[in-house]
Amino acid sequence: MVKNMGGIDRVVRTILAIAFIITAAVLGSWFWILGVLGVVFLVTSLTSSCPLYMPFGISTRPR
To answer: Would the pTM of this model clear 0.85, i.e. be above it?
Structure first.
């Protein structure tokens, strides 16, 4: 995979991922959707690659 995420993007996604996963764990019910989104954010931040950026040619990674 092509790395297309910069440092700030990765940090923001990681913070959001943790918040979403905790919210889903605490509130349950329909909030499991946030948990799934949190896992996706966490995986993309760990791999430094966002599949949704690729078709649009977006890259937050400095050159």
So the answer is: yes
Tell me, yes or no, whether 42 lies in a domain. Answer: yes
Contact between residue 4 and residue 48 where contact means Cβ atoms under 8 Å apart: yes
> Looking only at Cα atoms, what is the longest distance across the chain?
43
Q: For the chain, how are helix, strand and coil distributed in percent, rounded to 5?
A: 70, 0, 30
Domain region containing 52: 7-56
Find out whether 24 and 31 touch, Cβ atoms under 8 Å: yes
In-domain check, residue 41 = yes
* 33-60 per-position pLDDT tens digit: 999 999 999 999 999 999 999 999 999 9
CA atoms within 13 A on the CB side of 54: 9
